[in-house]
Amino acid sequence: MIKLYELLKSIDIIDMKNEKNVDVTGIAYNSKNVTPGDIFVCIKGYKTDGHKYIFSAISNGAVAIVVEDFQEGWDIPQIKVSNSRYALAALSDYFYGCPSKKLKMIGITATNGKTTTTFMTNSILEAYGIETGVIGTVSIKIGNNIIPSQLTTPESLDLHRYLHSMNKEGISHVAMEVSSSALELSRVGNVEFDIVAFNNISREHIDLHGSFENYFDSKASLIRNASEKQWAILNLDCPYSASLVNQTKAKTLTFGIENNTGDLWCRDIDLSTGRAKFIVEVRKEFKVDDIVYKPTMFDIELSTPGYHSVYNAMVAIMAGLLCGVPIPVIQKGINQFKGVERRFEIIFEDEFKIIDDHFANPGNINITLETLQKMKYNNLKLVYAIRGNRGPIVNKENAQMIAKWAPKLDMNEIIVTLSKSHVTEKDRVQDEELIAFQRVMSEQGIKVHLYEELSDAIEYALSGIGNDDVLMLAGCQGMDYGAKIALEILSRLKPYIDTKVLFRPLEKRVAGME
Ligand SMILES: CC(=O)N[C@H]1[C@@H](OP(=O)(O)OP(=O)(O)OC[C@H]2O[C@@H](n3ccc(=O)[nH]c3=O)[C@H](O)[C@@H]2O)O[C@H](CO)[C@@H](O)[C@@H]1O[C@H](C)C(=O)N[C@@H](C)C(=O)N[C@H](CCC(=O)O)C(=O)O
Questions:
Q1: 53 CB less than 6 Å from ligand 1?
Q2: Whether residue 365 sits in one domain with residue 459
Q3: What CATH number does residue 154 fall under?
Q4: Residue 152 CB–ligand 1 contact under 6 Å
Q5: Are both 329 and 396 inside the same structural domain?
Q6: Helical (H) or strand (E) element with 437
Q7: Tell me: the pLDDT tens digits for 68-110?
Q8: Would the N or C end of the chain have less CB density within 10 A of its end CB?
């Protein structure tokens, strides 16, 4: 509990109405979540306006309200501010005892790979015996406690509350995904980062930001607003990330694969096995607190494939160095990271491989198929589940991306399923979408094998699989659905193809961790 006037020291107030120094027991930004004693912060949102729900908030026991415009008809204290989202972040931070100040905060932004990078960073820190927290798309990890996530980056109130719980659990380091939406909507307001990273940017989320320039500006604010106390990790191969080198007060640590003029250079990359290997060369001396990193070289072997993994790993490795983790521990820790669920996840590996990928959008499909192309294998069997809820435009763009890669992958047939028995009404693929998909494939000379049921499609693929082939489960989502079916069919066919599950039994799979 805190006195209202004490709590209000954390924000800039324009004016107050019905002044009274009430006791405040909590904060809420949704009237439905108000409990007696809370201060309710009214946010003008995209869909509705929190000022409309004051009655509901007071009925639930709100003792004060934060507003952008004074409201008539209420006798509890009203605090007028210029921006409620800023106020929510500042109030939450203060209420929970400024938790981020007591933690080593690592904030990672990128269009692709935020989740993987945070879990890779976590793996490095854990290998050094550090108590860690992770905040991101898949889950919130507070020590051994895993909470499913609602958003990539939580609303500021929830974020500061999670950080407070981490303080209480004795956690010292937090690897956190920072989305552009979160930066735009002040969800990371008042979070004191120690290390921030900008890895890549491509066209996405333009709907929210209005233009690519606005999207970049939101992401860039993580770096541009960093202070001289912070470290910024920047990727010189991404022109947008590189452009921020001179736009921040933070100490910068730069890297590249193509560009070797940065502090670290990543070279001799081998992607042929599905487990990326490379050499990291520290090219310039740098000092972190008492540790001096002299120019040196070390090998890295990941358990994950592809160039994108290498970029993600570089950010995680550099975060590890900036946290003082010794190089041999970094090598071990990053190798222990087995990948994030359904992000090019190898669910079976023996005479052939089964890989599960969410195949969500053209950008992700591009990376996935490029990764596949870099691997050595015999034949590719692609089982692609078309889903209606992606919308006809995305479905068409996905088809075009598959068609673009088909010749490079020697792929002249595709196994397609609509998974009719597992979808809700909104997920149903419209006939026109399927026709559009088939047209794109036939223009490329790709034969489409269409199955109504995913299990039939997978069985067809597995019955013809040979040594060193790859079965790619593309977009076969939902409760381990495609992966589970594939492994069940495999165990049924086992006596005939004599294989065993080596890589990771399904029941052991936990998001981002082994
Ligand atoms: C576009 C966006 O980010 N919207 C977020 C925003 O919603 P909004 O502004 O539309 O809020 P609103 O529904 O208009 O409501 C306004 C206010 O009235 C309140 N309200 C509403 C109804 C009611 O009965 N009582 C009440 O008090 C709401 O709690 C809110 O405070 O503020 C809400 C409260 O914090 C968020 O839940 C919501 O995230 C939505 C669910 C969402 O899907 N966001 C996605 C786009 C997102 O943020 N994604 C990124 C990842 C993508 C990336 O990489 O950028 C993420 O970080 O997860």
A1: yes
A2: yes
A3: 3.40.1190.10
A4: yes
A5: no
A6: helix 431-443
A7: 999 999 999 999 999 999 999 999 999 999 999 999 999 999 9
A8: N
